[in-house]
Design a protein that fits this description.
By secondary structure, this protein is of the alpha/beta class. The chain is built from ten helices and twelve strands. The two termini are about 30 Å apart.
Length: about 350
């Protein structure tokens, strides 16, 4: 793992990483200004690992996920950095070559399952097309693999469900189907962009349990993108906190939740009921995230931070490490969060 701008290699053995991202920068060019949606993001992801990426809306987390798959459309573009999947550089790869990797070695699950599912095709037909997109597969093997993944994600009576249409499924079941399609080729990495946000709490809990089991069984690495630290804490072993296009804190999830070092992370925790005292109003982070075309100098969080000083108009230390922890802050917190 590495915070933006760091010249220090991430902790751990990066050679064993299935996905290595270095200084990734994705900008959106408009007539008025350049929006730095992703500004120097670096991290490593290992086989069988679930990595959480959390932040407010507009923090750049979804653009980060899309950038990994080369799914950024104009006026956005990757302007720098490296994304290596199983040792292969993806930045600058031709669209045709990227398409051969998407779905097969690198897959994505979107917040809205209907962004994945075609309403005029049966589930079985969509799974057949997804499997055969990367080469000829016998009909019997298509059916067997489709039934296998539907069963893995908790779809009851998968045989009859192959002939069903997307509109015949509930929202939770449609999301399970979308996850099943992502699993078809046993990809090395899955990027899940807020896949349970629109679901009720009980369905969320079921899907989180199933995802954890699937990752453990398959060894597939998963990046779970969310604005909800509570959901991330339920599924991810490691978490990265993003603000204004940059990573501001990262580390083992339990440690980050128990002892956040960046004031922004503490603010996110303060908005959760389980981290607030009974009978007291939930804490809110004052103000709003800065526009990406007009970021303040130094620390982008400084205008909203109660700990800000004139020093915060300068860039924070680029890397501060405590065991497997890292953060960017002139005035890091040093307190444990009690529930």
């Amino acid at each position: 793992m590495s915070l933006p701008g760091s010249s220090v290699e991430p902790s751990g053995d990066a050679r064993g990483a299935v996905l290595s991202v270095r200084d990734l920068r994705t900008h959106f060019e408009t007539r008025q200004a350049t929006l730095k949606a992703v500004d120097g993001v670096s991290f490593d992801l290992y086989p069988g690992e679930i990595l959480g990426l959390v932040g407010e809306s507009g923090s750049g987390k979804s653009v980060t996920g899309s950038s990994l798959l080369g799914l950024v459309d104009p006026p956005g573009r990757i302007v720098g950095g490296s994304v290596r999947l199983e040792g292969q550089e993806l930045v600058g790869l031709s669209p045709d070559r990227l398409r051969t990797l998407r779905g097969r070695r690198l897959a994505m699950v979107f917040q809205d399952p209907m962004a994945t599912l075609n309403p005029v095709l049966t589930i079985g037909e969509q799974m057949r097309l997804a499997l055969q997109a990367h080469g000829a597969v016998p009909a019997a093997a298509v059916r067997a693999r489709s039934l296998e993944v539907l069963q893995q994600v908790g779809i009851p009576d998968p045989t009859s469900r192959l002939a069903a249409w997307p509109h015949q499924f509930s929202g939770g079941m449609r999301q399970r189907v979308a996850i099943a399609i992502a699993l078809l080729h046993r990809p090395a990495v899955i990027v899940a962009d807020e896949p349970t946000t629109a679901l009720d709490v009980s369905i969320q809990a079921q899907i989180l349990t199933e995802i954890r089991a699937l990752v453990a069984q398959s060894g597939t690495a998963l990046i779970w993108i969310s604005h909800d630290l509570a959901t991330v804490s339920a599924i991810a072993r490691r978490v990265m906190v993003m603000y204004a296009g940059r990573l501001v804190e990262e580390g083992p999830t339990a440690q980050v939740l128990r002892r956040p070092r960046h004031p922004y992370t503490r603010g996110l925790l303060g908005s959760l009921p389980q981290f607030s005292a009974p009978g007291r109003l939930l804490a809110q982070i004052p103000g709003a995230p800065p526009p990406l075309h007009d970021l303040p100098p130094g620390c982008a969080f400084a205008p909203r931070c109660a700990r800000a000083t004139p020093a915060c108009t300068q860039a924070p230390p680029e890397r501060t490490v405590e065991s497997a922890r890292a953060w960017r802050c002139h005035h890091p917190l040093d307190e444990e969060v009690t529930t």
